[in-house]
TrEMBL record:
Record InterPro entries: Aminotrans_3, Aminotrans_3_PPA_site, PyrdxlP-dep_Trfase, PyrdxlP-dep_Trfase_major, PyrdxlP-dep_Trfase_small
Pfam families: Aminotran_3
SUPFAM superfamilies membership: PLP-dependent transferases
Lineage: Bacteria, Pseudomonadati, Pseudomonadota, Alphaproteobacteria, Hyphomicrobiales
Key words of the record: Aminotransferase, Pyridoxal phosphate, Transferase
Protein name: Aspartate aminotransferase family protein
Family as reported in the entry's similarity comment: Belongs to the class-III pyridoxal-phosphate-dependent aminotransferase family.
PROSITE patterns with a match to the protein in the record: AA_TRANSFER_CLASS_3 (PS00600)
Essential cofactor(s): pyridoxal 5'-phosphate
Gene3D superfamilies the UniProt entry points to: Aspartate Aminotransferase, domain 1 (3.90.1150.10), Type I PLP-dependent aspartate aminotransferase-like (Major domain) (3.40.640.10)
């Protein structure tokens, strides 16, 4: 393993760069729900990597599928060409997706999926003769990756601050989390429809004929895990339908089982027009992302006066054969191991566990849905993020990986986690919060 003081030479982690350089943490080995450091210290993976290793690390079935694919064909272009595994995978995804979401575009990450979905939405509006619809609506505290499309519609001003060249005409819905009303409450918050009506206000402001699409995470993940209030997504759907606006669900985190259903769209019974996925699609064993679209979007693109031939879009690695092989193998695992069902069954146990932390020092808010949670710590005066970082570092020292941003910590264990491992996660996390107080 490289000595920690060599990191400077070759590694450029932009996120939390300065802190990382002062205190580098390395992961060298992984299996099941555990990582090991280069020194051999075992760390329980409380975040499924980055919300992605849903079936656990080092799955033999995925390894074999990738090896077999390598034997057969390493790579094939998807420009003017195709390969059977891509079509087989798309058929399998279509069969498990709710409603008539039945066409797939594959790419390599969540950020690519988001940019692709935004382009597809704009192209669709044009194709059906609604070329004035160029505005995109995101949401405050939304996270949609780091491409220019994603940071434009994303709701974290901090992620945009260095960049002037954003997409024009983007507006943001207010975020959905009202801590004063929801802290420590279980189940979904109540104020959904009234918040979704903010979309009517935005539509009235700009006129529906200028708006192409609304993009939201059904449950905001990276910005602190914010489950949607009751009725929120249903109401957004109604308003979008009424005004001819496409609704995009960014299911990069919620897709493939995190909520105890295949997709949040299924969990909430709300069908978006487009859906972006990544992470759990391939268990993160190889990079992959995707956009799923409904039949009317596909047909509109293919038959409109300015049809999809006008849309130039695709990546060298779209539907990469190794990614398709991995994604197909992970679908088998999800099914054979019943992992979505398992997440649903474990969710109440998980909820009890994370809510047992509410009396830990400095905890001001706890949110959970499915097999994930967000926990806010009270910020130290004049030092936003210091307490969260301290808790994160303590947790790692004590043998637990969590995700930190500012004074919020998030956890999302692999869906194969056992109850005693949930106990261990909660126990270590409680100790880390206490030691960071
Ligand atoms: N959308 C959502 C909802 C995400 O959570 C993420 C990543 N955390 C992204 C998009 C971006 O994905 P990637 O990091 O693979 O580009």
């Amino acid at each position: 393993a490289p000595a920690a003081n060599n990191l400077e030479a070759f590694f450029m982690p932009f996120t939390a760069n300065r802190q990382f350089k002062k205190n580098p943490r390395l992961l060298a080995k992984a299996k099941g729900v555990h990582y090991w450091t280069p020194e051999g210290r075992k760390v329980i993976d409380g975040t499924a990597g980055l919300w992605c290793v849903n079936a656990g690390h080092g799955r033999e079935e995925i390894k074999q599928a990738i090896a077999a694919q390598l034997e057969e064909m390493d790579y094939a272009p998807t420009f003017q060409m195709g390969h059977p595994k891509a079509f087989e995978l798309a058929a399998r995804h279509a069969a498990m997706l709710p409603g008539d979401l039945d066409h797939a575009f594959y790419c390599n990450s969540g950020s690519e999926a988001v940019d692709s979905a935004l382009k597809i939405a704009l192209a669709y509006q044009r194709a059906r003769g609604e070329g004035t619809r160029t505005r995109l609506i995101g949401r405050e505290r939304g996270y949609h990756g780091v491409g220019f499309g994603g940071i434009s519609v994303g709701g974290m001003a901090n992620n945009r601050k260095f960049f002037g060249s954003l997409l024009p005409g983007v507006d943001h819905l207010p975020h959905t989390h009202l801590p004063a009303r929801n802290a420590f409450s279980r189940g979904l918050p109540e104020h959904g429809a009234e918040l979704a009506d903010e979309l009517e206000r935005i539509v009235a402001l700009h006129d529906a004929s200028t708006i192409a699409a609304v993009i939201v995470e059904p449950c905001a993940g990276s910005t602190g895990y914010l489950p949607p209030p009751k009725g929120y997504l249903q109401r957004l759907r109604e308003i979008c339908t009424k005004h001819g606006i496409l609704l995009i669900f960014d299911e990069v985190i919620t897709g493939f089982g995190r909520l105890g259903a295949a997709f949040a769209a299924e969990y909430f019974g709300v069908i978006p027009d487009l859906m972006t996925v990544a992470k759990g699609i391939s268990n993160a064993t190889v990079p992959m992302g995707g956009v799923f679209v409904r039949k009317h979007v596909y047909e509109g693109l293919m038959t409109g006066p300015e049809n999809a031939i006008e849309l130039f879009h695709g990546y060298t690695y779209s539907a990469h054969p190794l990614a398709c092989a991995a994604a197909s193998a992970v679908l088998d695992i999800y099914k054979n191991d019943g992992l979505f069902q398992r997440a649903a069954e474990l969710a109440p146990y998980w909820e009890d566990g994370v809510h047992s932390l509410k009396s830990a020092p400095g905890v001001t808010d706890i949110r959970n849905l499915g097999l994930a949670a967000g926990i806010d710590l009270e910020s130290k005066p004049g030092a936003v993020g210091a307490r969260g970082y301290a808790a994160f570092v303590k947790a790692f020292e004590l043998g637990l990986l969590v995700r930190q941003s500012a004074d919020t910590l998030a956890m999302s264990p692999p869906l194969i986690v056992e109850k005693n491992q949930i106990d261990e996660i909660i126990d270590i996390f409680g100790k880390a919060i206490k030691q960071a107080a």
